Sequence to fold (538 residues):
Amino acid sequence: MRRPARVDAVVHCDVVVVGSGAAGLAVALAATPRRVTLVTGGRLAAHGSTPLAQGGIAAALGPDDSPSLHAEDTVRAAAGLADPEAVRILTEAAPAAIHRVLADGARFDPSPRGGLALGREAAHSRARIVHAGGDATGAELARGLGAAVRRGAARVLESTQAEELTTEDGRVTGVLVRRADGRRWLLRAAALVLATGGIGRLWSRTTNPRESYGAGLAMAARAGALLADLEFVQFHPTALAVGADPMPLVTEALRGASAAIVDDRGRRFLLDEHEDGELAPRDVVARALARRLLAGGACLLDARRAVGEAFPERFPTVFRLAREHGLDPRVDLLPVSPAAHYHMGGVATDSRGLTSQPGLWACGEVASTGVHGANRLASNSLLEALVFGWRVGEALGRRTGALEGVWDPTAAATTGSPEGPPTESPPTEERVERRIREILWRHVGVEREAGGLETALEELARLRRAPLDRRLRDLVTVGGMVTSAALARRESRGAHFRTDHPAADPASRRSLFSWSETRAELVAEPERAAGRPAEVAR
Ligand code: SIN
Fold:
């Protein structure tokens, strides 16, 4: 039995959801009549990656489109490693998902001809991307769903950091959380849902916010859950390179609107790499830009002619972010760089969101459902968070029996003494975090090779030997997991590019791992990977 050493209160809950992005909100809205307790490290719907998402939601809504065409594009982007059944579920549910979100109170951009405006993005064979506020889809989704949750779908614990899952006899039984005042509560749960987002913060260049450092993934790993495809990290080609952290995203929709990427002489160098130029697959564009920047060249996004005066109206988020850094995209070129953006891997789940650990569900970016394989198709991430979040919520809502718990935080016994509010990281911790992120960017970035990956593992192991606070320990743990998985995959596929193994290995398949906390080691589970979806289900 793994139980935390000290808690100030024990609270008996029914369903506990950790995370308040699109996936967590979707679970909370769908789980009725279950009583949901939603834990978020910040403010509801204002924390994590969802409110920053500029890209839209893909759905086959056009007269020339169908879920099977959407599925074909998703499977092609995934570079041979998608789970076809998970993709079918996703793409068939997509049109209804848009209508469900509208019913929950979000607003999408209308077409002048009536209905919703449908945009086209790289690697989509049809125009099928629904946006809100031009390039503010995530913010609108968070607003709409967040308001619906606040109307009573869940009890919300804001500014509350989840720290550790508790297990008894192999079953996840709750989560230890730290409240804003420093007190630790143990939330005992009949069902625990992780919706904690991604891991982009592990890289020094990222579009992800500070909280996306893999705390949920690390907790699940320590609790014994199987993990999948950890090596597959998508690097977005165009983050605004102005020294901000996180780097502001410069949405791919700009390239969809014919903005060009040029060097300092104004030459469109991407045409040398791929016939689709700026609209080549995301990993191809990211690699071309990374190589050019490493060689000391410039990468500049030119939207002056393609978008010009319409920029503030069509891309208000990018416009505001550029203006905050003294750039005006109507007249200036925007310096861009690849940046860690999205994790295709994560806690292995089946298509119902079940993990290998009884009592534990996962959805959204922290989960690996098999939808994205080795590379995610643009605008499939919010969609996946919604569709699989609702599936988890509905499944829990339908369940009968021993889920019902008792919510009574005021009556909970207080033991031990509070430690006071968490303090800002002291400079040493900031330095260590910066070091971890530089190691990952340098050796586990857009291009990887065995020597660099081994160096990264050694350096992370050295850092791990020093006493680390919880956040740094998670950063080192998750960094080591991703690096080990990248070392184990001796081929190039999708977003994982090995310069020492540049070709794809036709025999390769999805990877499955467990984590040994005592040995601080990722353990390959090839025999369990063979029957993966059934294995993960219980
Ligand atoms: C973007 O707008 O370029 C990002 C969209 C996505 O990550 O799907």
